[in-house]
């Protein structure tokens, strides 16, 4: 009998899917590892690999030269372990009631930012009779999480005591950058100085962490002074620039790994004056042809894309040549939960079943996730991570290495 509580209802992959080019992903990882060498690279695979599929990306990241993996939540980290991953792995975001023993047992490094968290890791070490590997997190200015500077010396002192008992080993000191994607932002020198001071305080407390890590993708790309021993790279590994121009400035070529495609579910003529979709926020100003794309905001297509974004469609004149650069069809009317309408233009010979590309690498005239981000007043991160569970992922160019 079907499990009534099982998730399900995925879209048929032919109808719509996110293709993930794992060769592009590997190329990005390799390029980033080379760019930061001899600093080591952590690839952040949280949030289902930024929407690309955590397990596939984790495996390919290791193959392509990521020494470390990063997961936000314990559940993500444990899933990686269950999948057979055995390499260095850090997790950093857990709730006040979460049992940390399974992480210690699975040899997952755990971030600690408070005395309470430290005592819970010590308890987990006692439960598992294993020494916990800890990265102490200091807040250097993001004011999101991390130990506030005023409490840092005490946290370091307590951690040193816990080290003496054999319960923990403090292997890292870390923090997170607030504005590395905005070169020249005053937060960055402030954070670099605060981080260096915090590390010195940890040493004064008797700790000898071998890993200092601060940089994200933007830091890895354009801030060599933020590289230290390890950088934690997310978005760039998936081929998306953390901000326009950063990868080029670093001389690193990134290839977007996700291509979101669908087949037109319907094509129909629309007469001048007809309103489209909820609220009639767009009205045809000429006779035209519209197509229905079977993806909506339930699938992560931003409602903000209504009347703003574009998709790539087969050439309008229908010459039949597959070589021709695709046309762009604008999104017309409101994006709905499961579908939206595009204007294929007067005389379009598009047919149901024709492929439309919402975003991809951009090399074949299609929009990119960064284009969608600009249209929707957001960032490429949000565009790819929001692609929903209903959208099947189709993996291309998986590595053959076992
Ligand atoms: C703690 C931490 N480190 C690193 C990253 C990777 O950041 P980015 O995707 O900008 O490289 C993230 C993602 O937000 C993060 O939360």
Features:
402 residues, alpha/beta, TIM Barrel, 2 domains, 8-stranded parallel sheet, 19 strands, binds pyridoxal-5'-phosphate
Overview of the structural elements:
The protein has 402 residues and is an alpha/beta fold. The protein has 2 domains: 22-239, TIM Barrel (Alpha-Beta Barrel), CATH 3.20.20; 258-396, Beta Barrel (Lyase, Ornithine Decarboxylase, Chain A, domain 1). It has helices at 22-36, 46-50, 54-64, 74-82, 101-105, 115-128, 152-164, 187-204, 217-222, 246-250, 369-375, 380-385, and strands at residues 16-21, 40-44, 68-71, 89-91, 109-112, 132-137, 168-174, 211-213, 230-233, 258-263, 266-270, 275-276, 282-283, 288-293, 310-313, 327-332, 340-343, 355-359, 393-396. Strand 6, helix 7 and strand 7 (168-174) form a beta-alpha-beta unit. The two termini are 35 Å apart. The model has no long low-confidence stretch (mean pLDDT 96). Pyridoxal-5'-phosphate is lined by residues 44, 92, 176, 216-217, 232-236, 242.
Overall residue-averaged pLDDT value = 96
Largest sheet: 8 strands, parallel
The total count of strands amounts to: 19
Bound molecules: pyridoxal-5'-phosphate
For the record, the count of structural domains works out to 2
Rg from C-alpha positions? 24 Å
CATH-derived topology of the largest domain: TIM Barrel
Q: Label the structural class.
A: alpha/beta
Bulk shape = elongated
CATH superfamily of the largest domain: Alanine racemase
| Helix content estimate | 25-40%
Q: What is the number of helices?
A: 12
**Spatial arrangement of strands, main beta sheet:** 8-7-6-5-4-3-2-9
Q: Judging by the overall fold, what is the CATH architecture of the largest domain? A: Alpha-Beta Barrel
CATH class of the largest domain: Alpha Beta
Low-confidence stretches: none
Q: Separation of termini?
A: 35 Å
| Strand fraction | 15-25%
